[in-house]
Batch of 2 targets.
Target 1
Amino acid sequence: MLEMLINPKKAEKSPWQMFFIGAFYATLSLILVKWIFSGDPVLSKYSGLLVVTFCVMFSIPFMYFALKNEEEKDLSVTGLSRLLKEHSKALLYFMLLFLGFVVAFSFWYVVFDDTTNFRVQIETFCIINKPSHFDECVEEYGVKHIARTTAFLTSTDKIVNIFANNIYVLIFTLVFSLIFGAGAIFILAWNASVISAAIGIFSRSDLANLPLGLARYMIHGIPEIAAYFAGALAGGILSVAIIKHDVKSEKFWNILQDSLNLVIISVIILFIAALMEVFITPMLFYG
């Protein structure tokens, strides 16, 4: 039933609707996890992953048909610039879907001061941002009894580590989308939930701070997620092509070339995003 809300062709004409679809999916996921699993002594510990899982389940039908639609464009459209223009339509509505996830997750995190349903996301935030004070970090944000980690990043290592981490995410996105065309949505929904927890922490449980928190993470987050979605498109259309076409055919090699172009563009965008995260975001928000 939920997959009937919107389809890729309609999303291309009215991409803004995907923001509300994403917000609806995220909100519904949180409601279902709170309603079904909050009283379970075991599964409630993993509610952060369950929220992401529900979000993925709702999104998979749309992702599958969107990737199938993009693969068909590779067969009918010629020229790199025209293909990129066509793929940019999909990137736009994917980005709005992701932004819907982030805004809804962040909003409910702040409203309910919800550390329970974002436990694993908070741990991930602390590993990335305060690795040398991990125990203190997770306890400060409401999570207790966590094992210690001793990783540490100096300021001179930041850009290399951020870029390397983003490349790892891109690789996982490519692999997931290649193995299962719509599978990349799991990586992307997970990243949306982690970013939302970070925004919630930055907002200090005050809705008035939420717009500032969104700006803090979206300045470099938007190009990062655009790169991941470009990678998801690359793997997804290649996955569909492998199923539908002979790998020795000219059509398949055209699609492979288009996928490689998308991957190269993704890597370039991720490097730019890493520079923004290290130099621009701290300058705007920390003086």
Target 2
Amino acid sequence: MSVLVIAPHADDEVLGCGGLIARRAREGHEVDLVIATIGERCSPPGVPGDVRRRELHDAAEILGAREPSILYEGYDAKLDTLPRRHLVMGIEAALDRTRYDEVFFSYPSHHQDHRAIYEAAFAALRERGKPGPGLVALYEYPYVGWAPSDIRGGRFYVDIAEVLPQKERALAAYRSRRCAPGHPTAWESVHALARMRGVECGRRFAELFYVLKMVE
């Protein structure tokens, strides 16, 4: 099985579905990562873009994903300034390289880049007259208290108890982005969210997804 995860920024793939990535890789499936943008803008002052790229590579390796691809360099916090057509075509090109069985992308959070990639991925994944992914779903962003109230799709949970340590190590690989306790993307917060999602579905730890399309 081939799996594609689309993320607005490097680390969103870990925050939203690092557990799923690790599980699919452990099960022997190929997992590709497409990162919309990476660069210096979203990093703390003085952190060069090549450091962010190295962190992305390390996180992917920890989770068992293949080498990530990056659509646009240096557009952190300004993906919404790119023509939507360019974003859609970039994601379409990634989809055309492999016939994916599952595709996951982030729901539209408060961040303008997340909204831009959600809309572009939604457009790129439209039916185009050829077999598409059997499963298309949205992963969540840790700002669950500041999330849209009208997220599309039915709930789908993935048990990540066995791979939670991998998710923690992958997030720790983003050393330049480490946040203080209490921040929504700090590990203690991500861990608490995984525990809460686990309680919701009768597991120790889980990730939540919203199904847009599922074909058996």
